[in-house]
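Usage

Read records sequentially. Each one opens with the input sequence:
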Amino acid sequence: MKKFFMIVAVLIVLAVTGAAFFVATFDVNRYKGVIESKAGEALGSQVKIGSVGLGFSKSLSLEIKALSIFEDGKEAPALYVDKAQISLKLLPLLRKSIEIGSVSIDQPRLIVVRHAGGVRLPGVNPPPRRPTPASPSGPPGPTPRPARPTRPV
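and closes with the structure output:
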């Protein structure tokens, strides 16, 4: 029984050492362009990243430095973050899925535009749409629910 626990302990130490080596040597900056383009597509704005790194605190984390999001046609960023740390959940990564556990942002600077319909963040959410003449006026009515099929008893 003692031999079994020694083997399990050695396997755990090897797994932890391998994970630490991977985190220490993996260069995430190689994927910086892909991250920028995917984030830009999702936001509908230009995204620039200074540098990206991997770390491990309570879980695997992605650290982004000098994150800038630009509104179309503007030279100054609508949103700038000195440092953002994104903690990833480990078990979903084994299933090739990314789930975010937490996000920590240091020194964000953003532009907020106030208008009659509320506020918006340029470069992060689109400007409010104006109703077109073809669209009905007023709020939409309730959405009808499909009828539930009945089962014989």
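Summary fields computed downstream for this record:
- The helical segments are 2-25, 32-43, 90-94.
- Strands lie at 46-56, 60-70, 77-88, 100-110, 113-115, 118-120.
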